Protein backbone atom coordinates (compact mmCIF):
# COMPACT_ATOMS: atom_id res chain seq x y z
CA UNK A 1 0.00 0.00 0.00
CA UNK A 2 1.36 3.41 -0.90
CA UNK A 3 1.86 6.04 1.76
CA UNK A 4 -0.77 8.17 0.01
CA UNK A 5 -3.40 5.51 0.60
CA UNK A 6 -2.37 5.20 4.23
CA UNK A 7 -2.87 8.94 4.77
CA UNK A 8 -6.26 8.80 3.06
CA UNK A 9 -7.32 5.95 5.31
CA UNK A 10 -6.60 8.12 8.32
CA UNK A 11 -8.67 11.08 7.18
CA UNK A 12 -12.00 9.98 8.71
CA UNK A 13 -10.34 10.07 12.11
CA UNK A 14 -9.73 13.80 11.72
CA UNK A 15 -13.39 14.70 11.80
CA UNK A 16 -14.94 16.32 14.84
CA UNK A 17 -11.96 18.16 16.32
CA UNK A 18 -12.69 18.10 20.05
CA UNK A 19 -9.82 19.29 22.24
CA UNK A 20 -9.28 16.31 24.53
CA UNK A 21 -7.66 18.12 27.43
CA UNK A 22 -10.56 20.55 27.69
CA UNK A 23 -13.23 17.86 27.67
CA UNK A 24 -14.98 16.97 30.89
CA UNK A 25 -16.01 13.49 31.96
CA UNK A 26 -19.33 12.60 33.51
CA UNK A 27 -18.08 13.37 37.02
CA UNK A 28 -17.10 16.92 36.10
CA UNK A 29 -13.36 16.25 36.05
CA UNK A 30 -11.01 17.55 33.38
CA UNK A 31 -10.06 14.63 31.16
CA UNK A 32 -6.51 13.96 29.95
CA UNK A 33 -6.28 11.49 27.05
CA UNK A 34 -3.11 9.43 26.65
CA UNK A 35 -2.51 7.34 23.55
CA UNK A 36 -0.11 4.42 23.94
CA UNK A 37 0.85 1.06 22.45
CA UNK A 38 0.61 -1.65 25.08
CA UNK A 39 2.49 -4.26 23.07
CA UNK A 40 5.22 -1.86 21.92
CA UNK A 41 7.11 -2.48 25.12
CA UNK A 42 9.78 0.16 24.53
CA UNK A 43 7.09 2.69 25.48
CA UNK A 44 5.97 1.06 28.76
CA UNK A 45 7.26 3.89 30.97
CA UNK A 46 4.81 6.20 29.22
CA UNK A 47 2.17 3.52 28.67
CA UNK A 48 1.57 0.00 29.97
CA UNK A 49 3.80 0.09 33.06
CA UNK A 50 2.97 3.72 33.87
CA UNK A 51 -0.73 2.90 33.66
CA UNK A 52 -0.44 -0.15 35.92
CA UNK A 53 1.59 1.75 38.52
CA UNK A 54 -0.93 4.59 38.65
CA UNK A 55 1.77 7.23 39.09
CA UNK A 56 0.14 9.73 36.74
CA UNK A 57 -3.27 9.44 38.38
CA UNK A 58 -1.70 9.85 41.83
CA UNK A 59 0.13 12.98 40.79
CA UNK A 60 -2.96 14.46 39.13
CA UNK A 61 -4.95 13.74 42.26
CA UNK A 62 -2.47 15.73 44.33
CA UNK A 63 -2.49 18.54 41.76
CA UNK A 64 -6.28 18.56 41.81
CA UNK A 65 -6.38 18.81 45.61
CA UNK A 66 -4.01 21.78 45.51
CA UNK A 67 -6.08 23.52 42.82
CA UNK A 68 -9.54 22.51 43.98
CA UNK A 69 -10.12 20.64 40.73
CA UNK A 70 -10.67 17.06 39.58
CA UNK A 71 -8.70 15.32 36.84
CA UNK A 72 -9.21 11.97 35.15
CA UNK A 73 -7.04 10.00 32.73
CA UNK A 74 -8.31 8.12 29.67
CA UNK A 75 -5.84 5.55 28.30
CA UNK A 76 -6.30 4.63 24.63
CA UNK A 77 -4.40 1.59 23.36
CA UNK A 78 -3.26 1.18 19.71
CA UNK A 79 -1.11 -1.25 17.75
CA UNK A 80 1.01 1.40 16.01
CA UNK A 81 1.76 5.11 16.16
CA UNK A 82 -0.24 6.10 13.05
CA UNK A 83 -3.72 6.15 14.67
CA UNK A 84 -2.32 8.02 17.68
CA UNK A 85 -1.06 10.71 15.32
CA UNK A 86 -4.42 10.90 13.56
CA UNK A 87 -6.23 11.33 16.87
CA UNK A 88 -3.75 13.94 18.06
CA UNK A 89 -4.26 15.97 14.90
CA UNK A 90 -7.98 15.75 15.53
CA UNK A 91 -7.44 17.12 19.04
CA UNK A 92 -8.66 13.87 20.60
CA UNK A 93 -5.42 12.70 22.20
CA UNK A 94 -3.27 15.01 24.32
CA UNK A 95 -0.16 12.92 24.92
CA UNK A 96 1.12 9.97 22.90
CA UNK A 97 4.10 7.63 22.69
CA UNK A 98 5.56 6.04 19.57
CA UNK A 99 8.77 5.13 17.72
CA UNK A 100 11.20 7.49 16.05
CA UNK A 101 9.83 7.18 12.49
CA UNK A 102 6.19 7.64 13.57
CA UNK A 103 7.34 10.58 15.71
CA UNK A 104 8.77 12.26 12.62
CA UNK A 105 5.59 11.58 10.68
CA UNK A 106 3.62 12.99 13.60
CA UNK A 107 5.67 16.18 13.66
CA UNK A 108 5.60 16.59 9.89
CA UNK A 109 1.84 16.17 9.57
CA UNK A 110 1.28 18.50 12.51
CA UNK A 111 3.49 21.17 10.95
CA UNK A 112 1.59 20.84 7.66
CA UNK A 113 -1.75 21.24 9.43
CA UNK A 114 -0.40 24.08 11.58
CA UNK A 115 -2.15 26.02 14.30
CA UNK A 116 -3.22 24.08 17.39
CA UNK A 117 -2.37 20.81 15.64
CA UNK A 118 1.38 21.32 16.09
CA UNK A 119 3.14 18.75 18.27
CA UNK A 120 6.39 18.51 20.20
CA UNK A 121 8.68 15.63 21.15
CA UNK A 122 9.15 16.11 24.89
CA UNK A 123 10.92 13.00 26.23
CA UNK A 124 12.35 9.60 25.37
CA UNK A 125 11.12 6.29 26.75
CA UNK A 126 13.87 3.86 25.68
CA UNK A 127 16.60 3.56 23.05
CA UNK A 128 19.14 1.28 21.40
CA UNK A 129 22.14 2.99 19.86
CA UNK A 130 22.56 0.47 17.01
CA UNK A 131 18.92 -0.02 16.02
CA UNK A 132 18.36 -3.47 17.53
CA UNK A 133 14.80 -2.65 18.60
CA UNK A 134 13.76 -3.55 15.04
CA UNK A 135 14.27 -6.76 13.11
CA UNK A 136 13.19 -8.97 10.21
CA UNK A 137 12.03 -12.50 10.94
CA UNK A 138 11.18 -15.38 8.63
CA UNK A 139 9.49 -18.73 9.15
CA UNK A 140 11.55 -21.24 11.14
CA UNK A 141 12.03 -23.49 8.12
CA UNK A 142 12.72 -20.64 5.65
CA UNK A 143 15.74 -21.12 3.42
CA UNK A 144 16.43 -17.37 3.34
CA UNK A 145 19.95 -16.58 4.56
CA UNK A 146 20.01 -12.81 3.98
CA UNK A 147 17.58 -10.05 3.05
CA UNK A 148 18.66 -10.53 -0.55
CA UNK A 149 16.81 -13.84 -0.52
CA UNK A 150 13.51 -11.97 -0.05
CA UNK A 151 13.74 -10.45 -3.54
CA UNK A 152 10.52 -11.03 -5.45
CA UNK A 153 8.74 -12.10 -2.26
CA UNK A 154 6.17 -10.46 0.02
CA UNK A 155 7.28 -8.73 3.22
CA UNK A 156 4.77 -7.69 5.86
CA UNK A 157 5.39 -4.48 7.78
CA UNK A 158 3.55 -1.45 9.12
CA UNK A 159 4.17 1.30 6.55
CA UNK A 160 5.73 4.35 8.17
CA UNK A 161 6.86 2.44 11.25
CA UNK A 162 10.42 1.96 12.46
CA UNK A 163 10.17 -1.64 11.27
CA UNK A 164 9.36 -0.46 7.76
CA UNK A 165 12.17 2.08 7.74
CA UNK A 166 14.67 -0.48 8.98
CA UNK A 167 13.75 -2.86 6.19
CA UNK A 168 14.01 -0.24 3.44
CA UNK A 169 17.37 1.07 4.67
CA UNK A 170 18.80 -2.40 5.21
CA UNK A 171 17.51 -3.67 1.85
CA UNK A 172 19.53 -0.97 0.08
CA UNK A 173 22.71 -2.49 1.48
CA UNK A 174 21.81 -5.69 -0.35
CA UNK A 175 21.12 -3.93 -3.64
CA UNK A 176 17.35 -4.13 -3.20
CA UNK A 177 14.79 -1.43 -3.78
CA UNK A 178 12.39 -1.89 -0.88
CA UNK A 179 9.51 -0.58 -3.00
CA UNK A 180 10.21 -2.42 -6.27
CA UNK A 181 12.10 -5.63 -5.54
CA UNK A 182 9.70 -6.86 -2.86
CA UNK A 183 5.96 -6.59 -2.35
CA UNK A 184 5.32 -4.60 0.82
CA UNK A 185 2.15 -5.66 2.60
CA UNK A 186 1.00 -2.92 4.97
CA UNK A 187 -0.31 -4.79 8.02
CA UNK A 188 -0.64 -4.46 11.76
CA UNK A 189 2.06 -6.52 13.54
CA UNK A 190 -0.32 -9.25 14.73
CA UNK A 191 -1.82 -9.60 11.24
CA UNK A 192 1.68 -9.76 9.76
CA UNK A 193 2.62 -12.53 12.17
CA UNK A 194 -0.34 -14.56 10.91
CA UNK A 195 0.65 -13.85 7.30
CA UNK A 196 4.15 -15.09 8.01
CA UNK A 197 2.94 -18.33 9.58
CA UNK A 198 0.44 -18.99 6.79
CA UNK A 199 3.10 -18.49 4.13
CA UNK A 200 1.42 -15.41 2.64
CA UNK A 201 4.46 -13.36 3.63
CA UNK A 202 8.07 -14.52 3.32
CA UNK A 203 9.29 -12.04 5.93
CA UNK A 204 8.01 -9.80 8.70
CA UNK A 205 9.82 -6.54 9.47
CA UNK A 206 8.65 -5.07 12.75
CA UNK A 207 9.53 -3.08 15.83
CA UNK A 208 9.93 -4.17 19.44
CA UNK A 209 8.66 -6.59 20.75
CA UNK A 210 7.37 -8.55 17.74
CA UNK A 211 10.64 -10.10 16.48
CA UNK A 212 11.52 -11.31 19.98
CA UNK A 213 8.00 -12.51 20.71
CA UNK A 214 7.75 -14.65 17.57
CA UNK A 215 11.20 -16.16 18.11
CA UNK A 216 10.50 -16.82 21.80
CA UNK A 217 7.30 -18.63 20.85
CA UNK A 218 9.14 -20.77 18.30
CA UNK A 219 7.13 -19.26 15.46
CA UNK A 220 9.97 -17.55 13.56
CA UNK A 221 13.73 -17.11 13.11
CA UNK A 222 15.62 -13.82 13.13
CA UNK A 223 16.91 -13.12 9.61
CA UNK A 224 18.11 -9.55 10.03
CA UNK A 225 19.15 -7.85 13.25
CA UNK A 226 18.41 -4.11 13.20
CA UNK A 227 21.58 -3.65 15.23
CA UNK A 228 23.54 -4.51 12.08
CA UNK A 229 22.24 -1.27 10.55
CA UNK A 230 24.06 0.67 13.29
CA UNK A 231 21.59 3.59 13.36
CA UNK A 232 20.15 4.60 16.75
CA UNK A 233 16.47 3.88 17.28
CA UNK A 234 14.21 4.97 20.10
CA UNK A 235 10.65 5.68 21.22
CA UNK A 236 9.46 8.88 22.77
CA UNK A 237 6.61 11.00 24.08
CA UNK A 238 4.88 13.58 21.89
CA UNK A 239 2.36 16.17 23.05
CA UNK A 240 0.05 18.63 21.36
CA UNK A 241 1.72 22.03 21.66
CA UNK A 242 -1.60 23.66 22.51
CA UNK A 243 -2.02 21.23 25.38
CA UNK A 244 1.54 21.79 26.63
CA UNK A 245 1.00 25.54 26.60
CA UNK A 246 -2.50 25.46 28.05
CA UNK A 247 -1.98 22.73 30.64
CA UNK A 248 1.72 22.98 31.61
CA UNK A 249 1.21 21.64 35.13
CA UNK A 250 -0.51 18.52 33.82
CA UNK A 251 2.33 17.88 31.38
CA UNK A 252 4.84 18.30 34.20
CA UNK A 253 2.99 15.74 36.29
CA UNK A 254 2.97 13.30 33.36
CA UNK A 255 6.71 13.67 32.80
CA UNK A 256 7.44 13.31 36.51
CA UNK A 257 5.27 10.19 36.53
CA UNK A 258 7.23 8.87 33.54
CA UNK A 259 10.46 9.49 35.46
CA UNK A 260 8.95 7.58 38.41
CA UNK A 261 8.03 4.66 36.13
CA UNK A 262 11.49 4.66 34.52
CA UNK A 263 13.15 4.51 37.92
CA UNK A 264 10.80 1.70 38.95
CA UNK A 265 11.60 -0.33 35.82
CA UNK A 266 15.36 0.10 36.22
CA UNK A 267 15.22 -0.74 39.94
CA UNK A 268 12.79 -3.67 39.55
CA UNK A 269 13.41 -5.15 36.08
CA UNK A 270 12.04 -8.65 36.74
CA UNK A 271 8.92 -7.43 38.51
CA UNK A 272 8.33 -4.81 35.80
CA UNK A 273 8.67 -7.39 33.01
CA UNK A 274 6.21 -9.67 34.78
CA UNK A 275 3.77 -6.77 35.17
CA UNK A 276 3.98 -5.82 31.48
CA UNK A 277 3.66 -9.45 30.39
CA UNK A 278 0.58 -9.87 32.56
CA UNK A 279 -1.03 -6.71 31.17
CA UNK A 280 -0.27 -7.46 27.51
CA UNK A 281 -0.35 -11.25 27.26
CA UNK A 282 3.16 -11.22 25.76
CA UNK A 283 5.60 -13.93 26.85
CA UNK A 284 7.52 -12.61 29.83
CA UNK A 285 10.80 -13.97 28.43
CA UNK A 286 10.40 -11.74 25.38
CA UNK A 287 9.45 -8.71 27.47
CA UNK A 288 12.56 -9.16 29.61
CA UNK A 289 14.72 -9.59 26.49
CA UNK A 290 14.05 -5.95 25.70
CA UNK A 291 13.14 -4.40 29.06
CA UNK A 292 15.40 -6.33 31.41
CA UNK A 293 18.39 -5.16 33.45
CA UNK A 294 20.77 -5.65 30.51
CA UNK A 295 18.06 -5.46 27.89
CA UNK A 296 18.07 -4.47 24.25
CA UNK A 297 16.42 -1.22 25.32
CA UNK A 298 17.91 1.31 27.70
CA UNK A 299 15.17 3.24 29.51
CA UNK A 300 16.12 6.88 29.95
CA UNK A 301 13.82 9.92 29.58
CA UNK A 302 16.51 12.38 28.45
CA UNK A 303 16.70 13.48 24.81
CA UNK A 304 20.30 12.71 23.91
CA UNK A 305 22.33 14.33 21.15
CA UNK A 306 22.86 11.01 19.35
CA UNK A 307 19.10 10.51 19.24
CA UNK A 308 18.55 14.04 17.90
CA UNK A 309 21.20 13.34 15.26
CA UNK A 310 19.44 10.10 14.34
CA UNK A 311 16.22 12.03 13.72
CA UNK A 312 18.10 14.46 11.46
CA UNK A 313 19.49 11.45 9.58
CA UNK A 314 16.04 9.89 9.21
CA UNK A 315 14.14 12.96 7.92
CA UNK A 316 15.62 13.00 4.38
CA UNK A 317 15.35 9.22 4.18
CA UNK A 318 11.65 9.20 5.07
CA UNK A 319 11.11 12.09 2.65
CA UNK A 320 12.83 10.11 -0.12
CA UNK A 321 10.52 7.12 0.24
CA UNK A 322 7.39 9.28 0.30
CA UNK A 323 6.49 8.77 3.95
CA UNK A 324 6.81 12.43 4.96
CA UNK A 325 4.55 14.97 3.29
CA UNK A 326 7.28 17.56 3.67
CA UNK A 327 10.62 17.86 5.42
CA UNK A 328 10.21 18.35 9.14
CA UNK A 329 11.77 21.33 10.89
CA UNK A 330 13.25 19.62 13.94
CA UNK A 331 14.11 22.81 15.85
CA UNK A 332 10.57 23.57 17.09
CA UNK A 333 9.56 19.90 17.17
CA UNK A 334 12.24 18.54 19.52
CA UNK A 335 11.73 20.44 22.77
CA UNK A 336 13.51 19.20 25.90
CA UNK A 337 12.57 22.21 28.03
CA UNK A 338 9.65 20.36 29.61
CA UNK A 339 11.63 17.27 30.60
CA UNK A 340 14.49 19.46 31.83
CA UNK A 341 12.09 21.13 34.22
CA UNK A 342 10.66 17.83 35.42
CA UNK A 343 14.07 16.12 35.67
CA UNK A 344 16.07 18.70 37.59
CA UNK A 345 19.67 19.91 37.73
CA UNK A 346 21.33 16.64 36.68
CA UNK A 347 19.64 16.64 33.27
CA UNK A 348 22.64 17.71 31.15
CA UNK A 349 25.02 15.29 32.84
CA UNK A 350 22.61 12.37 32.48
CA UNK A 351 21.68 13.30 28.91
CA UNK A 352 25.36 13.00 27.99
CA UNK A 353 25.51 9.39 29.23
CA UNK A 354 24.64 6.33 27.17
CA UNK A 355 24.74 2.63 27.96
CA UNK A 356 24.75 -0.69 26.14
CA UNK A 357 23.35 -4.14 27.06
CA UNK A 358 25.29 -6.52 29.33
CA UNK A 359 27.07 -9.55 27.91
CA UNK A 360 24.62 -12.03 29.35
CA UNK A 361 21.98 -12.98 31.89
CA UNK A 362 20.39 -16.14 33.19
CA UNK A 363 16.84 -15.98 34.52
CA UNK A 364 16.14 -18.85 36.89
CA UNK A 365 12.50 -19.39 37.80
CA UNK A 366 11.65 -18.24 41.30
CA UNK A 367 14.62 -15.90 41.65
CA UNK A 368 13.85 -12.21 42.11
CA UNK A 369 16.94 -11.11 40.20
CA UNK A 370 18.77 -12.54 37.23
CA UNK A 371 22.33 -13.85 37.22
CA UNK A 372 24.51 -11.51 35.17
CA UNK A 373 27.80 -12.30 33.43
CA UNK A 374 30.53 -10.26 31.80
CA UNK A 375 31.49 -12.64 28.97
CA UNK A 376 29.89 -15.46 26.96
CA UNK A 377 32.05 -18.25 28.37
CA UNK A 378 31.23 -17.26 31.95
CA UNK A 379 27.57 -17.22 30.93
CA UNK A 380 27.78 -20.75 29.51
CA UNK A 381 29.40 -21.97 32.73
CA UNK A 382 26.64 -20.24 34.65
CA UNK A 383 24.05 -22.15 32.62
CA UNK A 384 25.80 -25.42 33.37
CA UNK A 385 25.93 -24.59 37.09
CA UNK A 386 22.24 -23.68 37.13
CA UNK A 387 21.39 -26.97 35.43
CA UNK A 388 23.42 -28.93 37.98
CA UNK A 389 21.64 -27.10 40.81
CA UNK A 390 18.33 -28.28 39.38
CA UNK A 391 16.94 -24.81 38.81
CA UNK A 392 14.36 -24.26 36.09
CA UNK A 393 15.86 -21.81 33.62
CA UNK A 394 13.24 -19.45 32.19
CA UNK A 395 15.59 -17.80 29.69
CA UNK A 396 19.22 -17.17 28.89
CA UNK A 397 20.27 -13.96 27.12
CA UNK A 398 23.60 -13.20 25.48
CA UNK A 399 25.05 -10.33 23.45
CA UNK A 400 25.84 -10.87 19.76
CA UNK A 401 29.62 -11.07 19.28
CA UNK A 402 29.52 -8.47 16.48
CA UNK A 403 26.53 -6.18 16.92
CA UNK A 404 26.14 -6.52 20.68
CA UNK A 405 22.42 -7.24 20.26
CA UNK A 406 21.12 -9.31 23.15
CA UNK A 407 19.19 -12.36 22.02
CA UNK A 408 18.03 -15.73 23.29
CA UNK A 409 21.10 -17.91 23.83
CA UNK A 410 19.32 -21.10 22.72
CA UNK A 411 18.20 -19.40 19.49
CA UNK A 412 21.64 -18.00 18.64
CA UNK A 413 24.30 -19.42 16.34
CA UNK A 414 27.27 -20.40 18.53
CA UNK A 415 30.84 -20.44 17.24
CA UNK A 416 33.97 -21.84 18.82
CA UNK A 417 37.18 -19.99 18.00
CA UNK A 418 40.25 -21.84 19.35
CA UNK A 419 42.41 -18.76 18.72
CA UNK A 420 40.27 -16.37 20.80
CA UNK A 421 40.86 -15.45 24.42
CA UNK A 422 39.49 -17.84 27.02
CA UNK A 423 36.56 -15.53 27.77
CA UNK A 424 35.55 -15.45 24.09
CA UNK A 425 36.40 -18.95 22.94
CA UNK A 426 32.68 -19.44 22.46
CA UNK A 427 30.63 -16.59 21.01
CA UNK A 428 27.00 -16.19 20.04
CA UNK A 429 25.43 -14.48 17.03
CA UNK A 430 21.80 -13.49 16.65
CA UNK A 431 21.63 -14.29 12.92
CA UNK A 432 23.20 -16.89 10.68
CA UNK A 433 24.49 -14.17 8.36
CA UNK A 434 26.53 -12.38 11.02
CA UNK A 435 27.85 -15.72 12.25
CA UNK A 436 29.01 -16.59 8.73
CA UNK A 437 30.83 -13.26 8.51
CA UNK A 438 32.67 -14.10 11.71
CA UNK A 439 33.60 -17.54 10.39
CA UNK A 440 34.98 -16.02 7.20
CA UNK A 441 37.12 -13.60 9.18
CA UNK A 442 38.39 -16.22 11.65
CA UNK A 443 39.74 -19.34 9.91
CA UNK A 444 39.70 -22.35 12.15
CA UNK A 445 36.48 -21.34 13.85
CA UNK A 446 33.46 -23.63 13.65
CA UNK A 447 29.75 -23.65 14.46
CA UNK A 448 28.77 -25.65 17.53
CA UNK A 449 25.41 -26.36 19.09
CA UNK A 450 24.27 -24.41 22.13
CA UNK A 451 24.16 -27.61 24.19
CA UNK A 452 27.73 -28.46 23.18
CA UNK A 453 28.91 -24.95 24.05
CA UNK A 454 27.34 -25.23 27.50
CA UNK A 455 28.90 -28.65 28.04
CA UNK A 456 32.41 -27.68 26.94
CA UNK A 457 32.75 -24.07 28.14
Automatic annotation (TrEMBL):
<dbReference type="Pfam" id="PF09084">
    <property type="entry name" value="NMT1"/>
</dbReference>
<dbReference type="InterPro" id="IPR001638">
    <property type="entry name" value="Solute-binding_3/MltF_N"/>
</dbReference>
<feature type="signal peptide">
    <location>
        <begin position="1"/>
        <end position="20"/>
    </location>
</feature>
<keyword id="KW-0732">Signal</keyword>
<dbReference type="InterPro" id="IPR015168">
    <property type="entry name" value="SsuA/THI5"/>
</dbReference>
<comment type="similarity">
    <text>Belongs to the bacterial solute-binding protein SsuA/TauA family.</text>
</comment>
<protein>
    <submittedName>
        <fullName>ABC transporter substrate-binding protein</fullName>
    </submittedName>
</protein>
<feature type="domain" description="Solute-binding protein family 3/N-terminal">
    <location>
        <begin position="43"/>
        <end position="268"/>
    </location>
</feature>
